[in-house]
Known about the structure:
Elements: E1 5-9, H1 13-24, E2 29-33, H2 36-45, E3 49-55, H3 63-72, E4 81-85, H4 92-99, E5 103-106, H5 111-122
Parallel strand pairs: 1-2, 1-3, 3-4, 4-5
Helix pairs in contact: 2-3
Amino acid sequence: MKEKKILIVDDDMRNVFALSSLLEERSMKIVVGRNGKEGIEKLEQNPDVSLVLMDIMMPEMDGYEAMRQIRKNPKYKKLPMIALTAKAMQGDRDKCIEAGASDYLTKPVDTEKLISLLRVWLYQ
């Protein structure tokens, strides 16, 4: 997973800090977007992003809409996107997958689960 570039899209800087620390410890490069709109801009500026961690509840543009927009671009059809949400309601996982997520994790993020998901999606 070393040297992989991960885009974290989350409006809560505590989440961004926690995730960044975890991933940087494993020699990954981090790019941050503070909402869906900014996340899409960061993705355009960093075409070498290997995976996106997408928060769902954000101001301006939520994660569902951001993932739909990203998936509209043919070059991002296969880009792994993992939805992160505090809303672990029945049907949320399906809603995330329908919007374009490759996978889904609930918050607070279980670090072991996240690392194993990253292994799955980064090495297909």
